[in-house]
Amino acid sequence: MMLHDTIAAALDAPLFPEAAAAPPPALQPGAAAAERPGTPGAPSGGGGASIVLRDVSRVFPARGGDAPVAALDSISIAIPQGEIYGVIGRSGAGKSTLIRTINGLERPTGGDVVVDGVAINRLGDAALRDQRRRIGMIFQHFNLLSSRSAFDNVALPLELAGLSRKAIGEKVLGLLDLVGLADKKDRYPIELSGGQKQRVGIARALATDPRVLLSDEATSALDPETTRSILRLLAEVNARLGVTIVLITHEMTVIKEICHRVGVIEAGRIIEEGLVCEVFAHPRTTTARAFIGSLPGREVPPALAGRLRADPAGAAQTVLRLTLTGAAAGQPLVTRLARELGIDICLLGGQIDSIGALPFALLYVGVPAGAWAGGPLRARLEAAGATTEVIGHV
Amino acid sequence: MSDWISPAILNLIVGSTLETLYMVAVAALIGTLAGLPLGIFLATSGKGELFEAVAVNRVLGVVVNATRSTPFIILVVAIIPLTRLIAGTSIGTTAAIVPLALAATPFIARIVEAAIREVDQGLVEASLAMGATPLQIVRKVLIPEALPGLVLGVTLAIVSLLSNSAMVGAVGGGGLGDLGIRYGYQRFMPEVMLLVVVVLIILVQAVQSLGETLARRVNRRVRRL
Fold it and tell me: Smaller CB count within 10 Å for chain B: N or C?
């Protein structure tokens, strides 16, 4: 039965339709990709698994006069092994349902969910339990057993798998060490901070050496600093163990911080997908733009926004939003153009950051009105790899 | 005290106390052994739950409610044929255990059900995600997590058994309650009645504090100082 599904799934469609059409080299996270085992195209060195969702739908039947609800509407995603894939969406967009189809907590009403060649949604109970041991999961509210110490919480999946007490002991200590909680092994969840609880959650999820780690809003209940430390740990786990990570979140910082690729989900559909730096530089949908705009430093500075006019007549300056990624962000572009074109460029706001391993700059600049309308400025900017957008006039 | 209460009466009280303890202990044990799985099943067999069996759940619910709504003294006499079948006789302390256990079972089942339902559903989900079987979830997650509530529930059931045991004098069950009625009330010996009540109060206090201590000890949801 299981073998059958595996073969059927493998024959149905190519595993990575997207991997074939490789992204432009300039946008590929260079350094990170080289180090990361299991990057698309690179030989697989780690223990990650590939995940393919093919036309996955989940329709909740009509209830009490309400029409049936399609929580997922023909979603197709291909996640190569070793990747960190983020799904971002507002609450109710379907991201929770989506991540639950990957370990079969939610059964799709249509389509297939294939993890490492096994069609999860077609498995019987026993085979599904077997597969679930190879898919770890962490949760927003940690879901630790209050009746068990940190050690015993991490030991639980190993007990369920029937390991000997001795084997469990060695394994658990190693895992607690990995997440930096070796000294807290006898503490109960009530005695741990949120970040420590999530570390126990991560150790527990990794206990059975899974090839996939699902993260269900794992940092949403944590403060920004703890969030960063948990995300760093996840990135480390991904790099060190090669575990494929699928995470869902409503926070763009999470995507920015550790994801390689991102899918934007809305009303049960993936409306935009791509490498994180790509989506950041060129968001195509208003939802993606809204999420990116929610990051600190991304908005038009309020003082500037108040002065902006749409009508260029009589304005002294044209206000541009420049987006630079990768090599473009590293150049002294603004000063060079100012010098070479003999114009003044006024810096009005913005942010310089890195996304994945790539430098990323978003700048609000004011240029003389004449220089934009007629001059070579635009061509020079675009030649240097900047995306330009006129947002108004002052 | 000796000129107020004769040694004979004192002997009666000691004997009755032992009878009560015997009846209540055995009935509590049987009630727990039967009520625990019944309660767990009631808590996990609803729609979309671990052991989904909606029809069985509903039937059991009705049976449990029916047993619980029958006044205990009526239950005692109504099940005399069953008692005779199980205990070989329908009279005496051992025979009285049958109705006591029968009344305790649904009571404990409902308490267990409530305690199990209190367990965070997220833990069940996390266990399923780990590949746990439903039985493993019951054993390793639901029971340990609900343990403080279960201990308090059984404590409550024992206290209610102590009170029920006063009624089994109707079938010659003996015990403290019976002593109180026969000597204290029917033979106009208020001091016996008083002693019976005092002993019962002490028993209830002891059971209650023991239960609370135990529940506290197994409760890991509160920070220890």
Answer: C
Spatial neighbors of A312 by CB under 8 A, at least 6 apart, are A318, A369, A373, A393
Closest residue of B to A130, CA-based?
B131
Tell me the per-residue pLDDT of A223-240, one tens digit each, with 9 for 90 and over.
999 999 999 999 999 999
Contact at CB, B122 and A135, closer than 8 angstroms: no
* Nearest CA-CA distance, residue B130 and chain A, Å: 5
Pairing of strands A212-216, A261-266: unpaired
Inter-chain CB proximity B129 and A160 less than 8 Å: no
Q: In whole angstroms, what is the distance from residue B117 CA to residue B134 CA? A: 15
CATH superfamily to which A305-393 belongs: ACT domain (3.30.70.260)
Q: Order of strands across the sheet with A244-249?
A: A135-139, A212-216, A244-249, A84-88, A261-266, A269-275
- Complex confidence, ipTM: 0.88
Contact B97, B82 (CB under 8 A): no
Of residues B179, B111, B115, the one with CA closest to residue B144: B115
Contact partners, residue A55, CB within 8 Å, separation at least 6: A74, A75, A76, A110, A111, A112
| B217–chain A Cβ distance below 8 A for any pair | no
B residues 90-149 near A, CB within 8 Å? 120, 122-123, 125-133, 136, 140-141, 144-145, 147
Cβ pair A143:B223 closer than 8 A = no
The domain limits of chain A are 3-134+210-293, 305-393
For the beta carbon of residue A17, count every other beta carbon within 10 angstroms. 12
Collect all residues of chain B within an 8 Å Cβ-Cβ radius of residue A214: 129
Token couple for A312:
């260029």
Mapped onto helix, strand or coil, the DSSP state of residue A164 is coil
Verify whether the Cβ–Cβ distance B145 to A146 is below 8 Å.
Answer: yes
Segments in chain A below pLDDT 50: 1-46
Between CA A274 and CA A282 the distance in angstroms is: 10
At B38-83, the pLDDT tens digits run 999 999 999 989 999 999 999 999 999 999 999 999 999 999 999 9
Name the pTM for this structure.
Answer: 0.83
Bridge partners, residue A360, by sequence: A325, A353
Task: Give the helix ranges, DSSP H, for A103-223.
Answer: 125-132, 150-160, 165-178, 194-206
Q: What's the CA gap between A35 and A28, in Å, rounded? A: 13
